[in-house]
Design brief:
By secondary structure, the protein is an alpha+beta fold. It is 52% helix and 19% strand. Helix 5 packs across helix 7 (194-212) and helix 8 crosses helix 9 (304-319).
Length: 350
């Protein structure tokens, strides 16, 4: 009976015996049974078909509608293809780079849009703070945030002329904006000079983009928030509030001026016209009275007695109807009743 405590001299370890050759051959036969039809030739056909399918798959590619594809053969530019389904040489002979030439791209300076797909759309947090800090022409500081909107106009130049063209565009934009802001005072930058800054920065960025042949077409430069540095923002806001209050009071004064002054001028013109009318009326009445008196005087000179009596009668006709109670006195009558009291019935009842 063998002693189990003695070490075994079996090189396979423990009490195991060497592998059986017959068992190994049997396993190979089982693998052959798994092949289609049990024939290795069929397995080779399957491998060939899979290889052809892989080659076809690697030779077909699709270009989106807003992009073009730049084809390179062993790293050298060959041609550019338009959107659609295309073929290329497989096995890494031809490589394809998709460039979105019809897509509106943008770069943000001083802030970032969450979940942006373009890695060059915004800078890192530290760079965002740094790139907004600028010195104006009057040696004041300002925090400027802006956006550059652009398109890829030449995909070949974009890929081969400049190394990291999107990063280069960020450097160009920051350099131009610092130059433009440095030529103006802080009041111009923060208040009235925004449109001029945008226009000048856009022109200079377009010139540098053409000079460096980056393949970009810069469409717009738009300023966002422009603020003074954080330590002086409270004081600056107070100054702005005072200026706004000043503008408000000036506008209210102009409103009252435009409301009261035209009204006063209108009343003045009305009173002047009324005075002119009254003057003309009095002059015309006086001239008419003079003409009437002269005509009457001419008739009086022709027949004084008749004219005097006619004037007396006309005067009485105009005066007597206005008198309520009338008393006629005959000075030649010496009777008891030299008075004739003429009253209407209404007067008698009183």
């Amino acid at each position: 009976m063998p002693n189990n405590n003695q070490p075994s001299n079996n090189p396979w370890g423990g009490n195991k015996s060497p592998p059986d050759l017959n068992e190994f051959i049997e396993k190979i036969r089982n693998v052959k049974k798994l092949l289609p039809g049990g024939n290795p030739f069929n397995f080779g056909i399957i491998l060939i078909v899979l290889l052809i399918a892989l080659l076809i798959k690697s030779a077909i590619y699709t270009v989106p509608s807003d992009s073009v594809a730049v084809v390179q053969r062993f790293g050298e530019y060959v041609y550019t293809v338009l959107p659609g389904l295309h073929f290329k040489l497989p096995l890494g002979i031809d490589s394809v780079e998709i460039v979105p030439v019809k897509r509106q791209l943008k770069q943000e300076f001083g802030f970032s849009t969450p979940e942006a797909n373009n890695p060059y759309q915004s800078a890192r947090l530290f760079d965002q703070v740094r790139e907004t800090q600028m010195v104006t022409g009057d040696l004041n500081a300002a925090l400027v945030e802006w956006v550059v909107q652009y398109r890829i106009s030449d995909p070949v130049k974009f890929l081969f002329e400049v190394r990291q063209p999107s990063a280069t565009l960020r450097y160009v934009s920051e350099s131009v904006m610092r130059e433009v802001v440095g030529d103006r005072t802080v009041d111009e930058v923060i208040t009235v000079g925004r449109q001029d800054i945008e226009s000048e920065a856009l022109i200079k960025m377009q010139e540098l983009s053409r000079k460096y042949e980056m393949g970009f077409s810069i469409d717009q430069v738009q300023l966002k928030n422009i603020n003074p540095p954080v330590p002086v923002q409270a004081s600056f806001n107070e100054v702005n509030q005072a200026q706004q209050e000043k503008e408000k009071l000036i506008n209210e004064a102009r409103r009252d001026y435009n409301k009261i002054i035209p009204l006063a001028l209108g009343e003045k013109d009305q009173q002047i016209r009324q005075a002119d009318g009254y003057r003309l009326k009095r002059i015309n009445e006086a001239e008419g009275d003079v003409s009437r008196f002269n005509a009457l005087y001419a008739e009086y000179l022709k027949a004084p007695a008749v004219t005097k009596r006619r004037v007396y009668i006309e005067t009485m006709q105009s005066v007597l109807p206005k008198i309520d109670g009338k008393i006629i006195i005959d000075t030649n009558l010496e009777a008891i009743l030299p008075l004739l009291n003429i009253k209407d019935r209404q007067g008698e009842g009183q």
